[in-house]
């Protein structure tokens, strides 16, 4: 199968490229390397040192000479059109977006940049599919954050509603928690519209928060299972307040003796999924495409946890490894969000296709902590990037 992976230099994109190549697919990776620039902009870096992007590509080609990489900005309409005209993919996995709520909330410039990149890029991809690869299966990465935290169960995309005596099946209402999440909602609306008028084949992945530092494929490609992965073939691991996800931040904090920082009351509950399991889910989605003209939504997560529950798990696992881990008494929440709420999302579609979680979250935390201990000094050097600086309402 010929697959285009948009965002191929990213946290999810790079291990996904390795997985698809390892399973014999023809892969074209696309990235504009903006994630590297944005993390430098907020004065941070990946805890795991990253090779120069072109050195990384060289390393992949040593194992898979057929790998094609294109440096490209998805907001460039002509380049996106040429990409689909040239390669005519069977599937495209769209991970090529700015993935940070805090980044989108810094100021108007960053909000607009996030919107223009995410929404504009997706519109270009949809039009290119229509014109040059109408049978292509788009796997679009959205976020569970599109739903917000309603006081009812969350379905997978659509629900049946009765109002004033009439019934219909409609998209579940969206309550984004940042301009980043709002851009993902706009993506979903645009994708549903394109599917409806052009009959495109789409799987919209509403993914939970991803955590973890490695995958089986990163190790398998190097033929070094149980040993150190080739330094050129690791994925990034962000721990700053802008790009680091909650559990990844906590594990990095634990390694350097920084108190863990759940915001506010710590009751914010979300769906979580390990990096390795995210790869499994995306591969299963690829192997089980929708019917021609079908639009479907998968809620991609393993289990739900509050951030305080996660912090306590890191304390327990860290202590078993000899780390002295404590939780901050109170960190003022920079976000405008419910800190205690009901949260019960459906997530059965991927399980029906065969997805099973790889390992308990405690084991994944242990693997992550052990790997991060090697980079303690590097994390310590960017300690100043850990505490929240971006407020949703800077007037307060």
Descriptive key words:
396 residues; alpha/beta; Rossmann fold; 3-stranded mixed β-sheet; globular
CATH homologous superfamily - what is it? NAD(P)-binding Rossmann-like Domain
Strand order of the largest sheet: 3-2-1-4-5-8-11
Count of DSSP H/I helices: 14
The radius of gyration is: 20 Å
Task: Supply the helix-strand structural class.
Answer: alpha/beta
Return the average pLDDT rounded to an integer: 96
- State the helicity in percent bands: 25-40%
- How is the biggest beta sheet arranged? 7 strands, parallel
What is the end-to-end distance? 52 Å
Q: What is the ordering of alpha helices and beta strands?
A: EHEHHEHEHHEEEHEEHHEHEEHHHH
Name of the CATH architecture: 3-Layer(aba) Sandwich
What count of structural domains?
Answer: 1
> What's the total count of β strands?
12
Structure description:
This protein is α/β, with parallel strands linked by helices. It has one domain (2-385): Rossmann fold (3-Layer(aba) Sandwich), CATH 3.40.50.720. The chain contains 14 helices and 12 strands. The protein has a 7-stranded parallel beta sheet with strand order 3-2-1-4-5-8-11, sandwiched between helices. Strand 6 (158-163) and strand 7 form a beta hairpin. Helix 9 packs across helix 13 (361-372) and helix 11 (307-320) crosses helix 13 (361-372). The longest helix is centred in the first third of the chain and has 25 residues, at 108-132. The termini are far apart.
